[in-house]
Amino acid sequence: MKNLIKLKHLYKLKEAGVEYFEGFSSEDKEIKMPDELKELEKICKNCTLCDLSKTRTNVVFGEGNPNAKIMFIGEAPGEMEDKTGRPFVGRAGKLLTKIIENVLKLNRDDVYISNIVKCRPPNNRVPTIEEAETCKPYLLKQIDIINPEILVCLGKTAFMYLLNTHTPISKVRGQIFEYKGKKVIPTYHPSFLLRNPSAKKEAYKDFLLIKSML
Ligand code: URA
Question: How far is the CA of 13 from the centre of ligand 1 (A)?
Fold first, then answer.
């Protein structure tokens, strides 16, 4: 959490018009992230660490089984998610729910669904690296608490910001990576599948692989 404190200081200084800042004292205190999902959610819902907090309607913390074996990570809330405070409830979310039910043969509430950033970026733009890095500690703590076996990254943004890599999703989809002892499987984002139905065949293969690992 040390970096979060630093970022908060930097945002405040930026707002005050400061353009150059020498550094932080080594005495910055650590903010302790709670080990309880509900407590983490409370803190996250009051977060003002980046500018997305100024334009959001609701924080979309994530939802699902707190003991899920599988966790889906999307990019950022869209319009419907911002309105409702729930992840993946728009058109892409409906497709994701269908895949979970029809391919994985699970219920949506058996899994956990979250995003790289918890607030909607204006006009659904891709979150900036600063926004992703500021918000990431919430996701990492969610992963830590829920402790799923499999992390499914939905689309390039989720994969890129989780594993700090820039590889195109078409090159990595369906392969198994590792993050802190958990299996990471990148696949296409459901919004991409809605725009490119021909990619559904490959996504189907990825989900069969995920099913075989459950
Ligand atoms: N797209 C995402 O990446 N996440 C959501 O929650 C909704 C749409």
Answer: 31
**pTM of the predicted protein model:** 0.87
Is 93 near ligand 1, meaning CB less than 6 Å away?
A: yes
Q: Are strands 112-115 and 63-64 parallel, antiparallel or unpaired?
A: antiparallel
Kindly indicate the confidence band of residue 32, based on its pLDDT and cuts at 50, 70 and 90. confident
Residue 151 CA, chain-centre distance (Å), reads: 10
State yes or no: pLDDT of 188 exceeds 90.
yes
Q: How many domains does the chain have?
A: 1
Domain that holds residue 69: 60-213
Residue 75 Cβ contacting ligand 1 at under 6 Å: yes
Calpha distance 214→209 (Å, rounded): 9
Cα–ligand 1 centroid distance for 176 (angstroms)? 22
